[in-house]
Amino acid sequence: MQSAPIGASLCRMFLKPGQPFFYFTAFLLVLAGFACTGCRQDSDPEISGLSTKRGFYYWKTHFALKSSEQAALKELQVGQLYVRFFDVDIPDGQQQPEPVGIIRISDSFPKAVKVT
């Protein structure tokens, strides 16, 4: 008769459901699984669904891009421009919010840039 290997005996002794060591081991295995899959980096960001595009915020009340700003958008291949169109405030004595500081647009938005 052949005896079971020592590792199998230890597993039967410690890895029984209900034992604290069982839950600790299960937790470590799940944590190791997340650690191994979470750090993966695909070489092509389009495949992984994580495409990075440059973006800028334009937070002035008057939209008029200078020639240097337009050149920077082109040179840096900016894909997104976040524009502040207005703020919202509740004036004293009123209960309804109102837009304040509404932007004045003197220049057209760049065609190659998505404006949000």
Question: What are the key terms here?
Answer:
alpha/beta; 116 residues; 7 strands; elongated; three-stranded parallel sheet; two-stranded parallel ribbon
Write the layout of secondary structure elements.
Blueprint: H1 6-14, H2 20-38, H3 45-48, E1 54-58, E2 62-63, H4 67-75, E3 78-83, E4 87-89, E5 98-100, E6 104-105, E7 114-115
What's the short story on this structure?
This protein is α/β, with parallel strands linked by helices. The chain has helices spanning 6-14, 20-38, 45-48, 67-75, and strands at residues 54-58, 62-63, 78-83, 87-89, 98-100, 104-105, 114-115.
SSE string: HHHEEHEEEEE
Unreliable stretches, pLDDT < 50, 5 or more residues?
none
The SS-based structural class is: alpha/beta
**What proportion of the residues is helical, as a percent range?**
25-40%
Description:
With 116 residues, this protein is an alpha/beta fold. Helix content is 35%, strand content 20%. The strands form three sheets. A three-stranded parallel beta sheet has the order 1-3-7, covered by helices on one side. The chain has a two-stranded parallel sheet with strand order 2-6.
